[in-house]
Amino acid sequence: MNEIRHRVGIKARIEDIYEATYKPQKLQSWWATSASGSDSVGSLIKLMFPGYLDHEWEIVELAENERVHLRLHSGPDPWLGSELRFEFLATTDQVFVTLTHITVAETPAEAYQYFCTKWPTFLVSLKQYLESGQGMPFPNDIKIQH
């Protein structure tokens, strides 16, 4: 297994940040074009990326205002075996969000490099959504390849 880890500071309420990482209506504000599903442990969230393959994530754990753990249920090959962990740490002036993307050892090098570069763009989108009300979900995200 490989881990990709990124951290960003966000000036927003920890409750809002926590909800933005697992509630379908919030995920479509910074990550996917649209999202559907339930927001409880054991349920599935479908993320739609038109022109690309959709993802379906299982909510594995919700530790209120501390951690969200998702596991890929179905999606494109490079994502198979992926898990995402969002962890939150509140300080006096911001909340730090640490995203850990766990991939399988067999993840191709090109996909791993893509994940390493792409996640920061979506974390900036999350930050913009929570601080200004306007994120950059797919297809309005920052492109890192053509």
From TrEMBL:
Pfam families given in the database record: AHSA1
Domain of life of the native organism: Bacteria
InterPro entries reported in the protein's UniProt record: ASHA1/2-like_C, START-like_dom_sf
Residue span, Activator of Hsp90 ATPase homologue 1/2-like C-terminal domain: 11-131
Family membership noted in the UniProt record: Belongs to the AHA1 family.
UniProt name for this protein: Activator of Hsp90 ATPase homologue 1/2-like C-terminal domain-containing protein
